[in-house]
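Task card 7
Instruction: Convert sequence to structure tokens.
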Amino acid sequence: MGISRNGRQQEPGNRPQRRWVPSEVGLIVVDSSFSPIVFNSEAAVILNYPERPSVEQELMLQIPEEILASIRGREPADFAPVISNFRAGKRRYTCQAYVMMSRIESLPSPVMALLLQRNSSTIEAVYEVAAQYNLTGREREALEGISAGLTSKELAKQMNISPNTVKAYLRIIMVKMGVNSRAAIVARILEQSAATPGKLVSAEGRKTMGRGA
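Output:
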């Protein structure tokens, strides 16, 4: 027998049920034509914002063009995750795309999993990480860029420097943070977001990997 919060004994079969907590991460699996195969309710909420679809109605998903542009032309053998950013209304989100292989013959292979997450806490996390590892102002700018999913070329244009200088900044950041890849830098930022109370980053988000240079 268990003991309830009021001190009374409970029969094993009468334990109080846990409250369901809505997911903060949208998950979509798309086929080779980028058509959704399966998705969770949070993905529907994110992509239909500001509408809030109900479970009774037929849920429709429109994959944002920003995501499609980042994953088109991916080779099936390229398993490196891709990070892109998009907006839903005034909200900003990050999409992490992963190539998945299927053992089900009837399911087109490869398929891709899209993880959608609101990134309202990203900037705060970047500043925390920059302070923790004593990054300079320019190094912090580079950190902000890769946290937003920018390539080295895009970041170079944003910072008005050469791509080689961007790569030099990234090498310095890796040394200071004690990591050896761009993916690990992004993971540290998400871990910092998850460690800050009230932030919209779940445990799933901590496993993210970054986009290659």
